[in-house]
Amino acid sequence: MGLILSPTQLAFNARGDGKFNQPFQEQLAFFRQKLNLPTEHYDDILKSAHDRAFVVAGAAKADLLNDLRNAVDRSIAEGKSIHWFRQEFADIVRKNGWEGWTGSDTQAGRDWRTRVIYRTNLSASYAAGRWQQLNDPDLLKSRPYWKYVHNDTVAHPRPLHVSWSGLVLKHDNPWWQTHFPPNGWGCRCRVTAVRASEYADAEAPDEGVYVKEDRNGRRHVIPKGVDYGWDYAPGASVSQQLQQLISDKAASLPPVLSQAFAADVAAGLIEPVTAIATVDEIQALLDRLNRQPETPARNAAIADAQQRLTEALAREGKAP
Predict the structure, then answer these.
(1) Dihedral class, residue 103 (left if φ above 0, else alpha if ψ from -120 to 50, else beta)
(2) Predicted local distance difference test score (pLDDT) of residue 270
(3) CB 219: neighbour CB atoms within 10 A?
(4) For the residues of the chain, what is the DSSP string, one character each?
(5) How confident is the model at residue 14 (pLDDT cuts 50, 70, 90)?
(6) Which of 17, 21, 58, 152 is most buried (most C-beta within 10 Å)?
(7) Using an 8 Å Cβ cutoff, are 25 and 31 in contact?
(8) Crossing angle (nearest 10°) for helices 242-252 and 255-265
(9) How far apart are CA 60 and CA 211, in angstroms?
(10) Sign of CA dihedral 266, 320, 1, 284
(11) How far apart are CA 198 and CA 168, in angstroms?
(12) What does pLDDT average to over the chain?
């Protein structure tokens, strides 16, 4: 499904300044290549593992995750508001019988949880799309430096983020690997591409580190100014091996969840179809599936894709 922009909506250009005149397809493409992963806790996976995984803490069933994923997908593709997402979230929770999730017992808790899911997915996918745009070889030839830009509209600015605003470093400076925004929950900082003339021989800041011990006793060394789990560049590691991520995740789950995980994501290894995929997207998927070795998961994925194709044809008013 293509990115849908109303006449009053603007997309993003690669530099991040001036008129925003290009549909931001990189953001949507990044989100859609993710695999649904069941989790109990928000830090079951950390940092770059989120480049390949869609997670909602506590959501462990495939149908629930897929419904939540589709709601986030539409939020990105169609520019849906957080009010719309909250209505969808309530319907999804009711439909799937999901109870006892963190924040479910109060309206304030529900508002907080939906805000975290909505903003985290939109900001991380935005950053990953920007990473791809900023690393375009043609752009790097003319604008090989990146500038950190703080969003001054946030209600509670982080002092270090403010101090980094205006910092210009070469695009391949290692600092960007841990400080490419967002750098924490609710962070709205961004990066723009600039010409070499804007570089003032600045050095990468070094404010030291802090140590976070997680619930399993593991110690994480994190740069100051960056929240736990956010010290990575979204989208920079999309090339990591998906199978390794799945194996690591399965090994970390309790036996019951591990078995459910194996059953629920088997078809996901062969690209599950989202409920809002287009006819062309599903037909392309079927072509790829038909070239795969025959396995139970592959056959199940084909059956699901064929059903989705029938639904998509009806939705688009095309004869089967």
Answers:
(1) left
(2) 42
(3) 8
(4) -PPP--TT-----SSSSS---S--HHHHHHHHT-EE---SSTTSS-GGGGGSEE--TT--SHHHHHHHHHHHHHHHHH---HHHHHHHHHHHHHHHT--S-TTTTSHHHHHHHHHHHHHHHHHHHHHHHHHHHHT-HHHHHH--EEEEE--TT-SS--HHHHHHTT-EEETT-THHHHHSSP-STT---EEEEE-GGG----------EEEEE-TTS-EEEEETTS-TT--S-TTTTTTS-HHHHHHHHHHHS-HHHHHHHHHHHTGGGG-PPPTT--HHHHHHHHHHHHTSPP-HHHHHHHHHHHHHHHHHHHHTT---
(5) very low
(6) 58
(7) no
(8) 150
(9) 29
(10) positive
(11) 7
(12) 79
Reading phi first (left if > 0) and then psi (alpha if -120 to 50, else beta), residue 154 is in: beta
pLDDT bin (cut points 50, 70, 90) of residue 267 is: very low
Residue pLDDT, tens place only, 207-249: 999 999 988 888 899 999 999 999 988 887 764 444 555 566 5
